[in-house]
Amino acid sequence: MAQVITVLGGSGFVGRHVVQRLAKTGAQVRLGVRNIELAKRLKPLGDVGQIVPMTVDIARGTGLAAAMAGADVVINLVGILAPGGSNKSFQAVQAEGAQRAAEAAKAAGVPRFIQMSALGADADSESEYAQTKAAGEAAVLALYPDAAIFRPSIIFGPDDGFFNKFAAMARTAPALPLIGGGATRFQPIFVGDVADAIVKAVTDPSVRGIYEIGGPKAYSFKELMQFTLTASHLSALLLPVPFPVAAFIGLFVGMLPGAPITLDQVKLLKVDNLPSGKFPGLKELGIAGATVEAIMPAYLARFQPGGRFGSLHGA
Questions:
Q1: Which domain holds residue 82?
Q2: Residue 157 covered by a domain
Q3: Per the database record, which ranges form the NAD-dependent epimerase/dehydratase domain (predicted)?
Q4: Is position 43 within any domain?
Q5: CATH number at residue 21
Q6: For residue 79, is it within any domain?
Q7: Tens-place pLDDT, residues 239-256
Q8: Number of domains in the chain
């Protein structure tokens, strides 16, 4: 009998890749999302009736019981990069929301729980994002000691919110900011590799505990910005912005919808976003990991002058 798997936040960037892989295993996939119209677009990824969208809001606690009933596995992918009101605060979504999801799963007798966290999750961090990610982990592990927790570095791939954002900025802005001089280091991981790690945890119950997952190479923020400009065939000044200046900007700009930087993100950038080496990673999961150089140029080509095929003009 096919597994029933509930994916909370399944219509998001990572979720779409997870759902596609789960559908190939023959599992019945329940998509617990706030915007059910977005989830309906994923139904063609599986057979008729295999992918079932359900209205769930973990920040409010609505729809959880129905989504959990009879499930074999729950995957919580819900997270936010910036707060947006009382029901979209870091605390409500990433700490209390994760706890509500785990409690509902436990009450429904779901045997397996998988939680998406983030590299840098730390109860003692200056960043509320990192604090609440750590709180979410703790809440899940208190109820599911055998849970699998994944802490990815920056996730990249088509439609990502990192490289695409900066390439779009470079199209119109004369400069890209290097917060803190651009020295912060990251180990970006391909979205397909994150999805493979999560599906591995679904199919292999020995995958348990915390996994810090980053790609094969580490880069400074400055190197990532330089590579973004190269891949998109764009030119922009890379402007160093000291942390105090960035914090001042983030304090005011961060209150605007779709803000390019928030104060909390500035706090995150003060610490390298690299695996600590204290926990297993992609290697232990048997995943080689794709590099930024192998994947990113193909999807940033649309930003180059003249579009994807702009470089062919005049050839």
A1: 4-146
A2: no
A3: 5-214
A4: yes
A5: 3.40.50.720
A6: yes
A7: 999 999 999 988 887 766
A8: 1
| Contact call for residues 157 and 299 (beta carbons, < 8 A) | yes
pLDDT value at residue 312:
45
Structural tokens at position 117: 């966290």
Contacts 24+ apart (CB under 8 A), 162-169: 162/188, 163/224, 163/228, 163/231, 163/296, 163/299, 163/300, 164/299, 164/300, 165/260, 166/225, 166/228, 167/228, 167/231, 167/232, 167/234, 167/300, 167/303, 168/303, 169/236, 169/260
Residue 116 to residue 104: CA distance in whole angstroms: 17
Question: Lowest-confidence range among 31-45, 57-71, 104-118?
Answer: 31-45
State the DSSP string of 134-149. Answer: HHHHHHHHHH-TT-EE
Is residue 91 exposed (0-12), middle (13-18) or buried (19+ Cβ within 10 Å)? middle
Contact 214, 275 (CB under 8 A): yes
Phi, psi (deg, nearest 5) at residue 80: -130, 150
